[in-house]
Specification:
The protein is α+β, with helices and mostly antiparallel strands. The chain is about 25% helix and about 20% strand. The protein binds a DNA duplex through loops.
Length: about 300
DNA sequence: CAAAATTCCTGACTGC
DNA sequence: TGCAGTCAGGAATTTT
């Protein structure tokens, strides 16, 4: 469930609290959380002794720059949490899979009920090696996204990041007209757009006044520009409110704080409740195996 | 080539 | 009260 705004909220805290710290010891208590590595020991060896130099985000990935040009990548999956602890004595929550202890005595714990998320240390490509970057991200005319992809090959396949990549509406229009996409599958496909999941695709499409099953190539220029503008608008507002914490309370930032954007959701998880714009009850359908909320009157 | 189905996982919830 | 079944869904993998 963590999507771009939640991941950005975590990134903000880590950038403030973890940059400059050196990793002393890594404990892996569930190897599934580091499954990209052959063994948990490999993961530990790549991380122990390294300092955190930067904390970036690409799509739903947190990318920690290490002092040896490697990167620690964290993906929260559905139920992953990164939690700070002042020291090792603080009780560890259930489903704590990885503990990163700093030389300063404090810790980061990776907690993940369903273990869909993962951590791994990415090795930079050898000098001069070509990293194939996704064709949608290549539409970017600048920003940090392209350099992150070149340094972290595992993320090179990601599509357009709404903040890290700079893609104007005209290039966005070219994406929409390049093939037949349903709008919701387009927004949630990480290889086309990076960072948007089930909650924010519903919110973006409502705010843009577009139906989830509209076909991309049927959009007018005005509709394309509206969608292009709405994506960062909705996500920016959600980041301001610290992300969305739904009833399951699965999302909290590293300080254990919930977000508040759930109070501002227009359609997601509001089945049967009146639309804030027109009072029509919000509808829910299953579309492409995903719960989809919309206002039948406001979206066309 | 792409799109659809399958898999991973735990906890909450439903029906009997 | 207990127990089997269902659902939630991001993304890699497998199948169609």
């Amino acid at each position: 469930m963590p999507e771009l705004p939640e991941v950005e909220t975590v990134r903000n805290v880590l950038a403030r609290e973890a940059i400059g710290k050196r990793v002393k010891i890594v404990h892996v208590t569930d190897g599934r959380a580091v499954r990209r590595h052959k063994t948990a020991k490999d993961f530990r060896a790549l991380l122990e002794g390294r300092s955190f130099k930067s904390v970036e985000r690409l799509g739903k990935n947190i990318v920690v720059g290490l002092d040896n040009a490697h990167h620690l990548v964290i993906h929260l999956g559905m139920t992953g949490q990164v939690l700070r602890a002042k020291n090792a004595k603080e009780p560890k929550p259930k489903h704590t899979h990885v503990v990163i202890s700093f030389t300063t005595g404090d810790e980061l714990r990776y907690v993940d009920q369903r273990t869909f998320g993962e951590l791994y240390v990415s090795t930079p490509p050898v000098e001069g090696a070509e990293v194939e970057i996704s064709k949608f991200a290549r539409l970017s005319i600048g920003g940090d996204g392209l350099s992150v992809r070149r340094q972290v090959p595992e993320l090179a396949h990601l599509g357009i990041d709404p903040f890290e990549d700079q893609v104007g509406w005209d290039r966005f229009a070219a994406v929409l007209r390049s093939r037949t996409f349903g709008l919701k599958p387009l927004l949630t496909d990480q290889d086309i757009m990076a960072g948007i999941g089930n909650i924010y695709s519903d919110e973006i499409l409502f705010t843009a006044g577009l139906m989830y099953d509209r076909v991309s190539e049927s959009l007018s220029t005005i509709e394309i520009r509206r969608l292009h503008r709405t994506i960062p608008e909705v996500l920016t507002e959600a980041i301001k409110h610290g992300g969305t914490t739904l009833a399951d309370e699965m999302f909290v930032n590293p300080d254990g704080e919930t977000g508040s954007y759930q109070d501002l959701l227009q359609v997601h998880a509001r089945e049967g409740l009146p639309c804030y714009q027109c009072r029509t009850p919000i509808s829910k359908v299953v579309f492409h195996q995903r719960a989809t909320y919309f206002c039948a009157k406001c979206q066309g």
